C-alpha cells in the first residue's frame, strides 16, 4: 500500500484522539457543573450530550466506511489488473528511535499460478515535512522450478532491494507463465 494511505489513517486516528480528548474534557466539565443542577436537569443534559455524540460519531463512521469501500474497490481493481493476490501479511516493529523506525514485513501471495513469499525490512525516517522509506533487507522465495532466468531475476532483485521492479516483472512473467502452462497442457492433452 502507499504511504499516503497510511498517512490518511494516521491523520484520522489523530483526529479521533483529539475528539475523544475534547469530549472527555467536556464531560469532566459537565460533571463539575452537575453539583449545581437538579437530577432532572442532569438527566436532560446527559441525553443531550449522548445525542450530540451519536450524531458526530455517525458522520465519522460513514466517512470511514466510504473511504474503506473506495480503498477496497481500488485494491480489487489492482489485483485483477496485476494478477497479484496477497494471501497473508505480517508486520512487526523491530526498532523505534526518535525519527527512525524499522519494521519487518512478511508477505505471501500468488501471481496467476505462481506463488511467492517475501520478507523485508523497511527503514522509515521522518523529517519535519515528509516520511521516507527504504527497503534495507529483502528475501524472496518463489516456486520458479527449473527456470534459471527467474532465479537470476530473484537474486538480482534481492541484491538491489527493488520491490517495485519485482512486482512489475512478476505480473508480466506470471501472465505469460500461465499462458505457456495452458498451451503446453493443451498439447499434452491432444497427444
Automatic annotation (TrEMBL):
GO BP term, example: CENP-A containing chromatin assembly
Protein name per its UniProtKB record: CENPP protein
Secretion signal span: none
Gene Ontology cellular-component terms listed: chromosome, centromeric region; nucleus
Keywords noted in UniProt: Coiled coil
Presence of keyword Nucleus: no
Species of the source: Rhynochetos jubatus
Pfam families associated with the record: CENP-P
Coiled-coil boundaries: 6-33
InterPro entries linked to this entry: CENP-P
